[in-house]
Amino acid sequence: MQLPSLFRRTPFRLTLLFLALFAAAASAILAYVYIASASEAQAKAEADVAGELQALRGIYDTRGIDALNMAVIDRSISKSAFVYKLIDRTGMPITGSLSVNPFEPTAQDGAWITFPFTDTDAEGNVIRPKVRAVTSRLSGGETLIVGESLGDTEAYLNRLTQALWAAMGMVLLLGLSGGLLISRNLERSMARLNRVVTAVEEGDLKARVPVKASGDELDELGRGLNHMLDRLEGSMASIRHAGDAIAHDLRSPLTRMRAKLEVALIDADSGRVTGVEALGIALDEADTLLKTFNTVLAIARLQAAAGRIPDAAVFDAADLAADMAELYEPAAEDKGLEFSAEIETGLMIEGGRPFLAQALANVIDNAIKYTPVGGAVMLRARRRSSGEIEYSVTDTGPGVPEADRGRVIERFVRLDNSRTEAGSGLGLSLVGAVMEAHMGRIQLDEGPGEYGGFGPGLRVALILPPASVA
Amino acid sequence: MKILVVEDDAEAAQAMVRGLTEGGHTVSHAIDGAYGLLEAQKGDYDVYVVDRMMPRLDGIGMVETLRKDGDQTPVLFLSAMGEVEDRVVGLKAGGDDYLVKPYAFAELIARVEALSRRRETGGVQTVLKVGDLEMNLIARTVHRGTTEIDLQPREFQLLEFLMRHAGQSVTRTMLLEKVWEYHFDPQTNVIDVHISRLRSKIDKGFDRAMLQTVRGAGYRLEA
Asked: For B72, phi and psi rounded to 5 degrees?
């Protein structure tokens, strides 16, 4: 990883920004602590010095200059924290631990200064602690200077400053390396995502983001991306499958039409059939093709509608069932089937009535088509205990083996034993698409079992959510 | 019958003009909605057959303009769009019928003729008469000669439609649309069975069958 590119990366830039903010905050705290400690130390020293000065002035006032002189000598020797200087009225030093007068000769009574004081410590090393001192004029014209070393406080402040600087250095170092680490990790995760996006862009729909179990935002993003790609791949596959299926299904009638036309041409040549008959055959085949196309289009439009049915309205599912029963009963009885309908009342649903009519018609059509003479077809419309509305069509035909029940809803799937019947294999696919668009579902079950030498029959249920308005 | 065909597809229009002319009608052709409007305003057509999608002025715009001008000539819309909402748009714009492309020629002719007949029988009728078949729309009774025929409600509607279009071919799709008000294509012979039941009621026992099957088209009620 190259540094220049690193600086352009968001995580690293963020790290730097935070470090700068932290350094500024630390400096502010440092300055505050320093100033506060320093002024506190000075105030304490001034209080100490004032007290000492008062004591010494007391000695001077009661017992005179000599006693004061003795006291200053005493106290200088005892190595207290104080420094002293006693100067006579001519400006000549009398005594004290200070070798020079740090004050200007004109310094007024009660003036304070801070100055470096040269001293030796216990090991004999020269040290120059700061001293806070005050000058004081005595009533006899002498000048007494008393000061206190700020040494301890100063050392403390120095150590504090050093520690804070060191800490800041450490923080900057750690922050910088942490930032590098984080941004490198983030960079890697982003690169993983980017690689997948690029791969997909280049047409590899199988590319997936490796997802760790940590469950952070990036993993979530990765999982989301994978999920999206799964869906995309699924729909691409189904489109491809539908395309293949359409091509396949259109090829059969086209091939048939071509063969029939060819035969018709030969037959017409030899005078066995007329050209008119041949054209009639071609027209029938063209009609079959068009119906297949129309159904495929209807399914595609329903799937594209994604649950939003045009002109959806609330209506009574029972009315539709009664209409369908009335429409289909004669056709069923004409074929020699017993047709019955059991319809509950007040089954309000919301949806596109024409679509549901088509779906129900397809299911009844199938039942009539596949049930042998002597059998029965029953239409029911009822409210399930779950509140859902259910249409069901039960027949006594051969039924659909359990293993095939999921498959027959797919496009163009026709079971072997139904190949002889006319049909595109799209009827139940359209029903499935209508149900999906209505948030409903289609369910295939075994029928009533053996009936009139046939069976076990088939029960197709169309289950719809009830209308949300009461 | 004078028919105005408004269609931008030259080949489709040519086929339509030829088919309708051979059916004994006088046909004019306009190549888009704007020309269609000019031609229609010259007047005196019995039916307009209008394609929905055309350059310049489309079928919807043309028919809306005609209706605004007070032209009540029946309109049959032709469209490749057959969804429910497309039909609704067509009928709202002032269309009287809607035929989805591609269509069988028999279907087009049957619908055009059904539209023109509707115009002739303006006014409220209470009794329909075709030959010796008589339908009382108020009492909801049907007689053939002196014999009363007992019909189910739907059979009554079916016969009423056939009587209103007596002498014309009506297709199975038309019956499903106009009598049951469904627009799908039933795979089994549902309509045929309803017709054969009706036929057994109105023709059985009489020496002449009125309800004829028209090969390749549908049915026709003959006086």
From this structure: -105, 15
Strand partners, B49: B5, B76
Q: Are A291 and B185 inside 8 Å of each other by CB?
A: yes
**What is the DSSP secondary structure assignment for residue B166, as one 8-state letter?**
T
ipTM of the complex: 0.81
Q: Of A301, A328, A331, which has the smallest distance from its Cβ to B83's Cβ?
A: A301
- B190 CB neighbours in chain A (<8 A) are 327-328, 330-331
Contacts of A25 (CB under 8 A, 6+ apart): none
Best A289, A334, A363, A365 member to test B by mutation, with max B CBs in 10 Å, is A334
* Residues whose CB falls within 8 Å of the CB of residue A95, separated by 6 or more in sequence, listed in order: A69, A72, A73, A76, A84, A86
For every residue of A315-340, DSSP letters joined together read EEHHHHHHHHHHHHHHHHHHTT-EEE
Residue A433 DSSP SS3: helix
Apex A161 CA angle, A159 and A166, nearest 5: 95
Q: How many CA atoms lie within 13 A of B87 on its CB side?
A: 16
| Residue type for position A318 | A
Judging contacts by C-beta atoms under 8 Å, the chain B residues touching residue A324 are: none
In one-letter notation, the amino acid at residue B7 is E
Partner A contacted by B186 (CB < 8 A): yes
A interface mutation test: which of B151, B181, B190 has the most A CBs within 10 A? B190
pTM of the model: 0.61
A234/B contact by beta carbon, under 8 A: no
Please provide residue A418's backbone torsions phi and psi, each rounded to the nearest 5 degrees.
Answer: -110, 5
How many angstroms separate the CA atoms of A327 and A325, rounded? 5
How far, in Å, CA of A319 to CA of A201, rounded?
51
| Residue-level pLDDT at A8 | 64
How many contiguous H segments (helices) and E segments (strands) does chain A have? 8, 14
Confidence (pLDDT) at A242: 66
